[in-house]
Amino acid sequence: MRNYSKYQTGFVNQGTVYCNAASSATAIPSLDKADFLKLQNGRATSRQTDVDMQSLSTGSNMKEKTLGLMLSDSRGVAVAGIEGEPVTLTEPVTEAIAAAFAAWLLDKKKVDASRRLKISIGHDSRISAHMLQEAVSRGITGAGLDVVQYGLASTPAMFNSTLTEHEAFLCPVDGVIMITASHLPYNRNGFKFFTYAGGLGKPYIKDILERAADIYSNFRAEGYSDKKASASVRKVDYMAVYTSDLVKAVRKAAGSRTACYSLIVIIFYEEKPLEGFHIIVDAGNGAGGFFAAKVLEPLSAITSGSQFLKPDGMFPNHTPNPEDKAAMKAITQAVLDNKADLGVIFDTDVDRSAAVDSTGCEFNQNRLNCFNVCHCARGRTTIVTDSATSDGLTSFIEKKLGGKHHRFKRGYKNVIDEAICLNSVGEESHLAIETSGHGALKENHWLDDGAYLMASGRNDGSKVLTDLVEGLEEPAVAVEPRLKINQSHPDLKGGPFRDYGEAVLKHLENSIASDPELQKAPVNYEGVRVSGFRGWFLLRPSLHDPVLPLNIEISSKPKFSKYFFVFKSKADLQTSQNNQLIDHNLISRGNGFGCKLVQFYRYEKR
């Protein structure tokens, strides 16, 4: 038993925190605030990209630089099994993070002692899910808050538990912890945090992890107690509520008819809006298997041929990622083999999705953005997307639909927050979407819910999705290499990789200004975006990895080599040494030209 002195006032007479993860004899390794902060968006993994754990623990300047790179959730290695990746998300660390979230929530809610707060916990199919769920529960109850365990759930459903009013299902809850690491490998896991206002952003996550570091220090100093707090842990099948609400939302979106009886107006929603549609679901062995039986079938869709619906945290069939080539190939083949009208694929926690139509045409990335703009009938307002979307999408939104394309930064939280900001100043926006497959609607509380996006729209009777996006200009060549910075190179002189990346961008920007054939984008929030030769490229720094992601799209294959040489001559990627500062081997996509790209990355002595 320990006194939780620093945050005791926020615990509303619940200043004692208990940790029950192990006996008092259990050794707890030393970690400090910087180590905890590296968990933000998964930086505390073994294959470190900028600094190792020991240097981060001892260098205060490096700590400050690292804090500037943090993102909006926390991830780490939860189970052993991959060489070179030791476990960083241990049970004591997890318990400390959960207790810190409870402390943070109490500070924000400022409730009196008469009301006990509730936090719901859910998880995806990862093999570490149950272990972490129990550790999270201990951390929360040790802080004196009640726990509602939902078990296997989707991230969007977890957020909805803060909004749903259903006493039998202990809703609404005051806060949410979703245990997931999206599409990352089986050994990873992490946490997403929500309140009724939405997902927590970077400053709040930083605050929680700093609190967790203090709590963890108390664990080490004072040991463990087997005594448990009086708070309760209950289990609820909230997914039954979520799927029922989702079915109702689809019926409502599909249309209605109104009848009037004795001055009482009754609205009848279409009960079977998907009748006759054959839709295949690929859940990738994640948490999305419910979508076939619990959502599509009640709407009268045919779901035979659906695959990988059973949760399996080893992900034996393909990576549960709508951006993964093998995953998209799997759902495409299933659609064609079963002669289905549509295929839907989700990531592990069902906040991202993609689709395949009856012809085998894939709808992910830019085409998915276009599909959702049409599908959700919000094209005449401002559509917020991330920075890597194509010029063709801009033309489609603004010329065909009469809307406005607002291209912002990468990161689903960034585009959602920007859409909310635009609405707050009077610019109407209903859709925020990222090429990774995250998409959020204003009507759905700005939640990035892949299941809602796939289920809520209609195609006006057509079963071929390409009908929707007719007129979208698509490039002949689209590549996305990631230029890896060699941090051991002497040119870095021990400095952070981001400084070198920014220097490259500045040089590129200055070079473009003197070239009449190339035009820098007049409005751009991230990196350097350049148009010319009927194409464009975007070079930007990664938020948390030592790489410079590069997007290139060009209208014809013969122009591609010329365009890339133009880029190479403008970006100062050569070094003063024979050694390579940019690792030319890291190329993520090629569209047939990936092999040619490699030779362009062979930087020689100036």
Overview of this structure, please?
With 606 residues, this protein is of the alpha+beta class. It has three domains: 2-235, Alpha-D-Glucose-1,6-Bisphosphate, Chain A, domain 3 (3-Layer(aba) Sandwich), CATH 3.40.120.10; 241-467, Alpha-D-Glucose-1,6-Bisphosphate, Chain A, domain 3 (3-Layer(aba) Sandwich); 477-600, Alpha-D-phosphohexomutase, C-terminal domain (TATA-Binding Protein), CATH 3.30.310.50. α4 packs across α5, α4 (91-109) packs across α7 (202-222) and α8 (238-254) packs across α9. It is globular, with a radius of gyration of 25 Å. Residues 1-26, 43-72, 257-263 and 574-606 have low confidence and may be disordered.
Please name the defining characteristics of this protein.
single chain, 606 residues, alpha+beta, Alpha-D-Glucose-1,6-Bisphosphate, Chain A, domain 3, TATA-Binding Protein, seven-stranded mixed β-sheet, seven-stranded antiparallel β-sheet, 17 helices, 27 strands, 19% strand, disordered N terminus, disordered C terminus
